[in-house]
Amino acid sequence: MTDYRAEKVVIVGGGLAGASAACVLAKAGYSALLLERDPEPRHKVCGEFLSIEAQVYLTHLGIDLDGLGASRMSRLRLLHRGMRAEVELPFMARGLSRKVLDEALLQRAASLGSRVSRGVTVRSISADASMHRLDAGPLETIRAETLFLASGKHDVRGAKRQASGSITDLIGFKMHYYLSEAARAALEGIIEIILFKEGYAGLQLIEGGIANLCLVVTQRRFEEVGKSWDGLIDQIARECPDLVDRLQGAATPLGKPLSVFQIPYGFLHQPNSAESQGLFRLGDQMGVIPSFTGEGMSMALHSGCLAASAFLRHGRSHSAFHRQMRSDIRRQIRFAFMLNKAARQAIGQELIFHLCRTWPAIMQQVASMTRVQETSMQRALAAL
Ligand SMILES: Cc1cc2nc3c(=O)[nH]c(=O)nc-3n(C[C@H](O)[C@H](O)[C@H](O)COP(=O)(O)OP(=O)(O)OC[C@H]3O[C@@H](n4cnc5c(N)ncnc54)[C@H](O)[C@@H]3O)c2cc1C
What we know:
This protein is an alpha/beta fold. The protein has a single domain (5-166, 272-381), classed as FAD/NAD(P)-binding domain. It is built from 12 helices and 15 strands. It has helices at residues 16-27, 52-60, 98-112, 181-187, 219-224, 229-239, 241-247, 296-314, 319-344, 346-358, 361-369, 374-381; strands spanning 5-12, 33-36, 49-50, 71-80, 83-95, 115-118, 122-127, 132-136, 141-149, 170-177, 190-196, 199-205, 211-218, 258-261, 279-281. The strands form 2 sheets. The protein has an 8-stranded mixed beta sheet. Strands 1, 2, 6, 7, 8, 9 and 15 form a 7-stranded mixed beta sheet that branches. The mean pLDDT is 93. Flavin-adenine dinucleotide is lined by residues 12-18, 35-38, 44-49, 54, 121-122, 150-154, 156, 172, 214, 216, 260, 263, 283-284, 291, 294-298, 300.
C-alpha cells in the first residue's frame, strides 16, 4: 500500500510560466496537477507592461486582453533630472494588472482540463532516479514522474537556484494609484520611465484607468531614506518634478506598496548533471531579465510553452529543453544585465538619457536586443 499520491506531471506555481505550461499540456490531453500557493488571486510586484511577444503568447493561449480591459501604450517617455525624451514604441504595448492576468490564465488552464489546486505550498522537493517527491502542504506527499518548477522568485527547498553572478542588492516595489484626471490624461498611451539615483521606475496605466508605479532601487538607497516608501517617493520626486504632477492628489487602492527583495537579475539556470531528470525549470526559475526590458513575462510564457512542447515530444528528458531555453534567452539576459549595471551609476544614466534623446532609434535597437526572437517563439508555439 502507498502512502502518497502518484502523478505523471505536476506543475509547481500558477504564475504565467506554470499556467501557460498547463494550458499547452491540457490542449494535448494531459491533465497536469498544478499546485498554487495562493488560495486567491493577488497582486504581484511587476511593471505590468506587456510586450508584443507576451501578447502573442497570451492570444495563442486564448486570453482576450481587450476583454480584460488592458490599456494601450504606443510611446515611451524617458524622464531624468527634469529632462524628457520621448519615442515611439516599436509595437503597441498593453498594461494589465497581474492579479487579473494571472487569474485569467489559471482559469483558462482549468477550463482546458488542468487540475488546479490552490492554497497548496510545496515545502520541499527531493528526487530519486524515476520520481520527484513533493512535500505539498495539505495534500501531503505527492510523487511526480515529471515536475515543472515554476515557483517564480520563490525557491523551493531541495531545488534552489544557484544565483551566483547575479545582482542581488535590488528591491522592487509596486503601488497602484487612482490619479487625478489631468495626470491620467498626461499618461494616456504612454509608459514613463524615470531614471533616479540608484534606481529606475515605470509609470503606466493598467485596466480601469488605474496607474501602476513600479520601481527598482538599491538596498543602500532605500536605507538612506530611512527604509520608508514615502521617503523614497519624496526623494525621487525631487529629482523628477513630473512625478509630483502625476501623484498630486492621487489615492491608492492598495493601501501600502508591495515589495520584493534581492531580485537576482542576470540569473540564468546552468544545466547540472546532478539534477535529476524530469525537472523542467520555467520562468524566473530558468532566467531573470532586468525588469526595465518589460520582457520577463514573455520569457515566462515562452518557457512554459516550450517546456510543455518539449515534454510532449521527448517525454521527461529535460536536457534539450534547458539547452534550448538558455540559447533563446542568454544573450538578452546578458545584454540587459550590463545595461542594468550602467543604469545604477549616475554617469551611466546620463549616457543612456542623452543617447536616447539625440538618437531615439537606439531605444528601438536596445529593445530588439532584449526580446525573445520570432524563430524561438515559433518553436514554442508549434505545440499550440
Ligand atoms: C520589479 C519588477 C518589475 C517587473 N516588471 C515587468 C514588466 O513590466 N513586464 C514584464 O514582462 N515582466 C516584468 N517583470 C518580470 C516578471 O514579473 C516575471 O519575470 C514573471 O512574473 C515570472 O513569471 P513566473 O511564472 O516565473 O513567476 P511568478 O509570476 O512569480 O509566479 C510564481 C507562482 O508560483 C507560486 N509559488 C511560489 N512558491 C510556491 C510553492 N512553494 N508552492 C506552490 N506555489 C508556489 C507563487 O504564488 C506564484 O503564483 C518584473 C519583475 C520585477 C521584479
